[in-house]
Amino acid sequence: MRDALRIGIAVFNAGDHHAAHDVWEEPWLELDAGTPDEQLLHGLIQYTAAVYHARRRNWNGAAGLAESAGGYLGAVDDDYRGVNVAAVCAYLRRLAADPEFAERRRPLALRHDGEAVTPLDLSFENVASAATLLAAAYGAFDESVVDDAVRYAREELHGADSPEGTPQRRSRGFVGMLFSFTADRDQRSIVYQRLRGHVERRRSEEADVSGVFE
User: What is the pTM of this model?
Assistant: First the structure.
């Protein structure tokens, strides 16, 4: 649950509001209706949907989803599982009453344990999950390229001297590119092209080595 919360929050805070929904949907569907965890995820899913529709000027859809999301989130504690639930509920009340408010102010950042989590705050494995999710959510990216990039990044980390949790990892080869791909929405297409080029070269190297032993 903690990993799912942090990944979804990071993706949302990076501006991928609709994609954040996909992080939470699977664990949400596995929960019994009406439990605190189910209410939390249900409310967060609808919060992301309300923001998504408001940013696209679907005022009626945004207002309805904001009201519904507030109902689910209002059923749990103000800081349930470390999420800034009370602040989100206040934002949702404002959005439900005046959905055009979304044009005048950026969406409220989601927080976990007091931190407005971004992809750069995630562990590598959580970033790998987020990158895979984003590749699936947007048709512009080849999922197999991202899958192979994750595999090559794990190989980098396995052979690295610095621990997986240190900042040095973020500037290293495939690892750094995956962090950038996930975190920088505005430059994502450029980062992806660079990532794809590195993956294709690595695939070619693997094919050459394989051919030697055939």
Answer: 0.86
Q: What percent of the chain has pLDDT over 70?
A: 91
* C-alpha–C-alpha distance, residues 53 and 208, integer Å: 49
Angular region, 15: left φ>0, alpha ψ -120 to 50, beta rest: left
Kindly report the backbone phi and psi dihedral angles of residue 208, in degrees, each rounded to the nearest multiple of 5, phi listed first. -65, -45
Query: Which residue from 102, 109, 37, 110 is spatially nearest to 66, judged by alpha carbons?
Result: 102
Best CA proximity match to 10, nearest among 67, 68, 83: 83
**Residue 115 in 3-state DSSP?**
strand
The torsion of the CA quartet 188, 193, 194, 199, rounded to 10 degrees, works out to 120
pLDDT digit string, tens, across residues 55-113: 889 999 999 999 999 999 999 999 999 999 999 999 999 999 998 888 788 899 999 99
> CA-to-CA distance for 138 and 49, rounded, in angstroms?
16
Reported confidence tier of residue 210, pLDDT bands at 50, 70, 90: low
Residue 122 DSSP class = S
Contact 63, 47 (CB under 8 A): no
What string of H, E and C letters represents the secondary structure of 161-173? CCCCCCHHHHHCH
> Which residue, 211, 2, 12, 184, is CA-closest to 110?
12
Placement of tokens 């602040």 in the chain: 87
As a whole number of angstroms, the distance between CA 153 and CA 133 comes to: 17
The residue to which tokens 């990071």 are assigned: 10
What the block records as the tokens of 209 is 């080595």
